């Protein structure tokens, strides 16, 4: 810090205002600490502004349009659906603004000092913030880093916001592109690719690996893949895009598929090949911190880095890039700073992919449990045998339960089907509390409801299922 600059003293400074940062700031303030939150953009971070929330709004709009067109068999005939993307964007932005406004109100109500600017660590207890009016300086007792991540940009396909899009630009389109290439068959690519296919785009997914959604149980992915083909999405696996040209207002992308070179034409290309942690240009070297080869910071169970005064949470730490993980880590860090014996020790963290149908998993798969030397039993129940799913025209998919054979303790639950994102909450609580198969299937579930698939899958694993034939 330059001699003569006056630093504002604060007990806790939080850098980054996403679902990790703002939660950390609020929780620390609730515990009586003086807190300053610094964010270079709108509070809410990527999740509220350019990720989780706007993407799910777009996905819901697309699902609504598609549902209207496939209601003929129920006796509901629709002559056509017109998609006004400008109005869709207005509605989506209204949802985002309502939530970010709520976060701003909560920060204010809890007495958090919010500063807009770009922060850099200058010394063990000082940061500088470049704001619109100049530099400001803060002296802190503890710092929580919550700077999140950003889309990976490929040198051969640099984002230009017009033809080559990141997820950020894809969420702000005011026209549905007639043709869309999606480079990367991971969760972001499939979520947005599915949405635009339902809105009217001809979508082609290009995935370098042998399967979509690498790392996800193939039996879950198979249901999603089948539905992608139903809505006209072309899927190219073991395919590599090597370059492109723009001719007459269209992309001409060269792709190698099974040893053959093809040129695909499209109006837009969405590149979703991963995310990179935002740990550069933070001044970490000033306090002796160095990210690993992946750009991540090591932390202990209280989210403390190797520097005793500095904590890190969310996408810049090891583990899945999930907003709810970041929020939990935020609470742990804030409570640790306040002197509480808080620790990040969940038994399992759920993960959700908002494809059609949704995929949600928590805990161990059968293969993972066996790799750990466990004797397991599994149960499975299809949504096609669930009354509620059939009445909502959503009978694709299934729920599977993995449990320890001897004790019946539930180890994992895996769902592909309607509202999997909601159902997985019950499964997560069950695993966290050490529930057994009997706890699941002896608990009376409401009928007709989608939640019955959890009860029925557990009953199947325990050999007492009523609503499906006994397996031989």
TrEMBL record:
It catalyses: N(6)-[(R)-dihydrolipoyl]-L-lysyl-[protein] + NAD(+) = N(6)-[(R)-lipoyl]-L-lysyl-[protein] + NADH + H(+). One of its GO terms (molecular function) is dihydrolipoyl dehydrogenase (NADH) activity. It comes from the Bacteria. Residues 11-330 form the FAD/NAD(P)-binding domain. It holds the Pfam family Pyr_redox_dim. Keywords: Disulfide bond, FAD, Flavoprotein, NAD, Oxidoreductase, Redox-active center. InterPro entries: Class-I_Pyr_Nuc-Dis_Oxidored, FAD/NAD-bd_sf, FAD/NAD-binding_dom, FAD/NAD-linked_Rdtase_dimer_sf, Lipoamide_DH, Pyr_nuc-diS_OxRdtase, Pyr_nucl-diS_OxRdtase_dimer, Pyr_OxRdtase_I_AS. It is an enzyme of class 1 (oxidoreductase). Its cofactor is FAD. Belongs to the class-I pyridine nucleotide-disulfide oxidoreductase family. This is Dihydrolipoyl dehydrogenase. It comes from Tumebacillus amylolyticus.
